[in-house]
């Protein structure tokens, strides 16, 4: 497995995209720290990057990479190599390089400019979102043989979780605003990794004060060990489930 | 020994293989022939596990391949269209394959030498011509000295000199007792290289016998003619039954 | 006639002065207890209290005395007693340290309590772990200056207010520091008084709690990190000038809560990092001028029950929401403020934006109406909605807008540092 991973890594690094992504994150984070001296506000601005850009880059890059390495996968499959090994090698390589780019791009400037604990939460949520969306992109890649279609499905995942789902959530909140909704919305948030990451991050930034009773409820929930365990495991489910599905499809896929 | 047992494959509504049953044995060389789209490549791909049969089973040395992958150590595969990671060099590709497939057997670099591939080891894959690609594919298929060789259209796109080198190699390997599965449109090539004929049409095996027997049956001296006669006979039979 | 009065006044004063005696109390003095000192002293005398600890239970000051501490003598209430009860006018208490009053749920035990007095001066004392610090009722013309009050209770019911005024008038509360009480400064039915240069920090409820108190002025105070900020309620004619409201952060905390306030004046204050800068309901005819709202969650929450208020020349900087309101009818004027979120232009170079600014965002409105919607904060959806609403206003109140938004923040002199 390590040998396969080595070659995928090698291939990934050669495209220079990962390097560009790291550079982009580095430059924008540096710029944000230059413009604003308050690290708390920089973290808030970076939150937008984490919630929008990281999932988008993750899905698009992963799908393109998968289809670009179709030859490699084909070649490997004619060799005495397990399909699962190939699949997980691909996932591990892509996820690690994207996470590495993210951690380096956001982490290094934050450390240089003096960061507080909220940066660690930001790094954690970003890494989790990368893992989730890489898994979703793999799922969309194995669902179809057509590259354009696969990118379409991947973008749909991104669009759904960043925008459409929130619209539905707002509709629920609007329709049932006369009822106590805290527990229901908490459950609904678990169904969207982006929302989950956003709420964890907002609570870390002590925005809960603005959120009234809802905020207090969420804070008490996510602040507890149980809540932390819950949100982390939900995110893990969000990684494992698409990955498992994708692997099942991949191991029966005709190439 | 490899046996296909009632292997069927559907791509959507298209029935590509229709309960194919076939046993092939070591020391023999099989010519897999049939018109375009008859299911030759699908058969090969399902043997390699690249395509998963809709029903039926494929057994490689007494073990089903459907859940196995280790049997591929014993197969050398030369695809019809060699598709490789585009931005690595030939040298890197060969290294990679040797790395991924640590074989106990002796490494066979005869074809790499014969095709003079080491001279262009630093060329990127995307810069190669179709013929050179074929040479790389051929060299890789033989590299690990496998007991089973599957060659999909091996001579397509090769220059006459290389074809001759390649044919010699195939004959030599055949003599070593290897099992060969070769598909080709160039029937005269197969004449020299193979011992048995498998004729596939519309996903079914229509005919399977040794070349000698085929030639005797059809009273033809050359494989090309013999096949043509065979097809004509078949069509005649079909028209009668209809 | 007037001159005779003045001369006789001077004579009277001089004669009193010559008559007044000075008594020293201390562990090494003939008079060792304050109680004995008070008993021997006559009205107008000065009691010098030397350093030491005095455990004498509750002491009643029923004559006009001057109590002066040397090196902060400690008056210990032993967690049982109220320490000083003033029942005479003209008492001066200076340089004492009060510790450990009793705690009671029925009586408001205080370190210094005065009921129905006038002309008191409580200056430069220290209070530690007192239930109530300074407690005045029905008292007038008095000064509370330069005191330091420190308590560290954990729950509201365990502690009283730092400076507690009830039914008083003409009081000056100046330069005190109050920490860790229930309310830092508590005013109820107090009129014509002045609260200046105080520092109220970390109190469990309000930094300043202000009710039914008309025509008062507070100026140059700092209110930091109090449980619920500052509450000013049911009053009129209040002037709030050059105060700083900071770090009042929590789901029910405000920089400044204005409830049923009329004809008042809020000017040159700084509101920084409060979850709500100003929350106002039922208030009218208040002038808000040259205040700076910085880094607040909500700068101003203006309930629909407010009218005729005017916001002019304020700076709104880096607040999450600038203004939110729960109604669509707008009866307040918002003009010529600086908004950092303003994206308009100034073609005619008159330093005022050419298109109006709408400080109320669609999302802000939504959160006012359904608080649960706040969980969508900072989502892409909200960003898009606000953008759209800015371009084509449909839901936000049509008239709630600043017609003359300033292109540059105002340079407010009192806030330069």
Automatic annotation (TrEMBL), chain A:
Q: Which residues cross the membrane?
A: 12-33, 45-67, 88-113, 119-139, 151-176, 196-216, 228-250
Superkingdom field: Bacteria
Q: Name one Pfam family in it.
A: ABC2_membrane_2
GO cellular-component term (any): plasma membrane
Gene Ontology MF terms in the entry: ABC-type transporter activity
Identify the keywords attached in UniProt to this record, alphabetized: Membrane, Transmembrane, Transmembrane helix
**What's this protein's name?**
Cu-processing system permease protein
Query: Origin organism of this chain?
Result: Chryseolinea serpens
TrEMBL record, chain B:
UniProt cross-references to PROSITE patterns, sorted A to Z: ABC_TRANSPORTER_2
Q: Which keywords appear in this protein's UniProt record, sorted alphabetically?
A: ATP-binding, Nucleotide-binding, Transport
Please indicate if the UniProt record lists Cytoplasm as a keyword: no
GO molecular function terms here? ATP binding; ATP hydrolysis activity
Domain ABC transporter stretches: 2-227
Please list every transmembrane segment annotated in the UniProt record, as residue ranges: none
InterPro entries from the entry? AAA+_ATPase, ABC_transporter-like_ATP-bd, ABC_Transporter_VariousFunc, P-loop_NTPase
- PANTHER family associated with the record: ABC TRANSPORTER ATP-BINDING PROTEIN ALBC-RELATED
What protein does this entry describe?
A: Cu-processing system ATP-binding protein
From TrEMBL, chain C:
> Is Signal tagged as a keyword?
yes
Instruction: Give the pathway listed in the UniProt entry for this protein.
Output: Protein modification; protein ubiquitination
- Any one Pfam family here would be NosD
Q: Which residues form a coiled coil?
A: none
Signal peptide residue numbers: 1-20
Q: Which UniProt keywords apply?
A: Repeat, Signal, Ubl conjugation pathway
Can you give the residue ranges of the Carbohydrate-binding/sugar hydrolysis domain?
49-188
Q: Which NCBIfam families match?
A: NosD_copper_fam, para_beta_helix
Name of the protein: Nitrous oxidase accessory protein
């Amino acid at each position: 497995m390590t040998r396969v991973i080595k070659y995928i890594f090698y291939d990934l690094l050669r495209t220079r995209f990962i390097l560009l992504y790291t550079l982009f994150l580095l430059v924008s984070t540096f710029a944000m720290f230059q413009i604003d001296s308050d690290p708390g506000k920089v973290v808030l601005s970076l939150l937008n990057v984490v919630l929008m850009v990281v999932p988008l880059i993750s899905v698009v890059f992963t799908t393109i990479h998968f289809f670009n390495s179709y030859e490699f996968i084909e070649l490997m499959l004619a060799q005495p190599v397990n399909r699962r090994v190939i699949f997980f090698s691909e996932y591990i390589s892509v996820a690690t390089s994207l996470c590495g780019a993210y951690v380096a791009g956001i982490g290094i400037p934050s450390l240089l400019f003096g960061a507080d604990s909220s940066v660690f939460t930001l790094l954690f949520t970003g890494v989790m979102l990368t893992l989730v969306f890489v898994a979703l992109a793999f799922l969309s890649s194995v669902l179809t043989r057509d590259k354009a279609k696969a990118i379409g499905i991947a973008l749909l995942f991104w669009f759904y979780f960043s925008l459409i789902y929130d619209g539905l959530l707002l509709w629920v909140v609007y329709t049932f605003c006369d009822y106590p909704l805290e527990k229901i919305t908490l459950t609904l948030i678990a169904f969207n990794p982006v929302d989950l990451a956003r709420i964890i991050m907002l609570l870390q930034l002590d925005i809960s004060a603005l959120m009234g009773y809802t905020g207090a409820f969420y804070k008490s929930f996510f602040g507890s060990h149980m809540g932390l365990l819950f949100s982390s495991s939900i995110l893990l489910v969000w990684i494992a489930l698409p990955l498992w599905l994708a692997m099942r499809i991949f191991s029966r896929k005709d190439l | 020994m490899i046996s296909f047992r009632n292997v069927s494959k559907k791509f959507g509504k298209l029935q590509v293989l229709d309960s194919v049953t076939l046993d092939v044995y070591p020391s023999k060389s099989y010519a897999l022939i049939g018109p375009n789209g008859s299911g030759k490549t699908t058969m090969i791909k399902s043997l390699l596990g690249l395509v998963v049969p809709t029903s039926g089973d494929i057994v490689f040395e007494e073990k089903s391949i459907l859940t196995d992958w280790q049997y591929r150590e014993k197969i050398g595969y030369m695809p019809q269209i060699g598709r490789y990671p585009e931005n690595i060099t030939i040298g890197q590709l060969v290294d990679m394959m040797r790395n991924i497939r640590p074989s106990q057997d002796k490494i066979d670099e005869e074809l790499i030498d014969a095709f003079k591939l080491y001279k262009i080891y630093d060329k990127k894959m995307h810069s190669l011509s179709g013929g050179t690609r074929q040479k790389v594919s051929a060299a890789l298929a033989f590299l690990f000295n496998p007991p089973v060789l599957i060659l999909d259209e091996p001579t397509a796109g090769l220059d006459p000199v290389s074809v001759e080198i390649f044919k010699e190699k195939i004959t030599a390997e055949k003599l070593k007792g290897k099992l060969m599965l070769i598909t080709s449109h160039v029937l005269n090539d197969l004449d020299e290289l193979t011992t048995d004929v498998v004729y596939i049409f519309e996903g079914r095996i229509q005919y399977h016998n040794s070349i000698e027997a085929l030639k005797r049956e059809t009273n033809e001296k050359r494989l090309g003619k013999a096949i043509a006669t065979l097809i004509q006979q078949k069509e005649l039979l079909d028209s009668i039954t209809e | 006639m007037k001159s005779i009065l003045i001369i006789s006044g001077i004579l009277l004063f001089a004669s009193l002065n010559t008559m007044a005696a000075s008594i020293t109390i201390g562990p090494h003095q003939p008079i060792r207890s304050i109680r004995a000192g008070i008993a021997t002293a006559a009205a107008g005398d000065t009691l010098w209290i030397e350093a030491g600890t005095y455990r004498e239970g509750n002491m009643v000051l029923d004559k006009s005395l001057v109590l002066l501490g040397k090196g902060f003598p400690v008056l210990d209430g032993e967690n049982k007693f109220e320490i000083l009860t003033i029942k005479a006018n003209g008492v001066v208490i200076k340089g004492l340290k009060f510790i450990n009053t009793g705690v009671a749920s029925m009586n408001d035990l205080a370190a210094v309590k005065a009921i129905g007095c006038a002309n008191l001066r409580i200056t430069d004392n220290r209070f530690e772990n007192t239930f109530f610090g300074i407690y005045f009722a029905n008292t007038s013309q008095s000064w509370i200056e330069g005191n330091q009050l420190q308590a560290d209770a954990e729950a509201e019911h365990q502690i009283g207010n730092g400076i507690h005024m009830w039914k008083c008038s003409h009081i000056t509360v100046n330069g005190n520091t109050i920490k860790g009480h229930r309310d830092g400064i508590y005013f109820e039915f107090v009129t014509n008084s002045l609260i200046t240069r105080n520092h109220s920090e970390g109190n469990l409820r309000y930094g300043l709690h202000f009710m039914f108190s008309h025509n008062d002025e507070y100026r140059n105070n700092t209110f930091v990190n109090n449980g619920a900020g500052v509450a000013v309620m049911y009053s009129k004619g209040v002037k709030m000038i050059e105060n700083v409201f900071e770090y009042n952060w929590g789901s029910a905390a405000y920089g400044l809560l204005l409830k049923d306030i009329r004809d008042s004046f809020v000017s040159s204050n700084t509101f920084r990092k409060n979850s709500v800068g100003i929350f106002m309901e039922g208030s009218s005819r208040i002038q808000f001028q040259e205040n700076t709202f910085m880094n607040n969650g909500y700068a101003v929450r203006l309930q629909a029950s407010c009218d005729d208020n005017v916001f002019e020349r304020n700076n709104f900087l880096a607040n999450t929401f600038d203004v939110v309101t729960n109604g669509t009818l707008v009866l307040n004027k918002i003009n010529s403020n600086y908004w950092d979120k303003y994206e308009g232009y100034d073609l005619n170079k008159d330093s005022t934006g050419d298109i109006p600014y709408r400080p109320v965002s669609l999302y802000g409105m939504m959160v006012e109406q359904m608080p649960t919607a706040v969980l969508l904060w900072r989502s892409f959806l909200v960003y898009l909605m606000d953008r759209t609403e800015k371009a084509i206003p449909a839901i936000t109140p049509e008239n709630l807008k600043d017609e003359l938004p300033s292109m540059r923040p105002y340079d407010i002199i009192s806030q330069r540092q």
